[in-house]
Amino acid sequence: MDISDDGQRLDPQWDDVNNNVCGVVQDCRDAAPVAATFVRAGWSSRSSSWHGYEVEASWGQIELDPMETREVLLNGVIYPERLDDLAGLLSRCGLRFTLELCDDSGALVREIQT
Predict the structure, then answer these.
(1) What 3-state class would DSSP assign to 105?
(2) Can you list the domains of the chain with their CATH numbers?
(3) pLDDT given for residue 50 in this prediction
(4) How would DSSP label each residue in the chain?
(5) Closest by Cα among 31, 37, 19, 23 to 80
(6) What predicted TM-score, i.e. pTM, was given to this entire model?
């Protein structure tokens, strides 16, 4: 997958915030196509491990890591009010997923599942 530096960097106010979003993209063995989905939507992408990617926009920074269970683990920081935008991005690409948004204490605030 091509790495893209075209997207915007996460707003610095979120640099020290703990991860508040996690989820799973189902039926996907490789994180590269999921990262490509984000790149097509204007996010930047860079390799974060042998098989993982970090994708970033001004309103979110997310790690994508493949799991042995044919799923891609998704976790990171997003503006809480943009959870629907993240879900919409994944839905428009036909991806099945589960997303969980947590507050500062780690308590579940909202869940979206397709």
Answers:
(1) coil
(2) 12-113 (3.30.160.110)
(3) 86
(4) ---B--SPPPPGGGTTPPP-EEEEEES-S-HHHHHHHHHHTT-EEEE-SSS-EEEEETTEEEEEEEETTTEEEEEEEE-GGGHHHHHHHHHHTT--EEEEEE-TTS-EEEEEE-
(5) 19
(6) 0.86
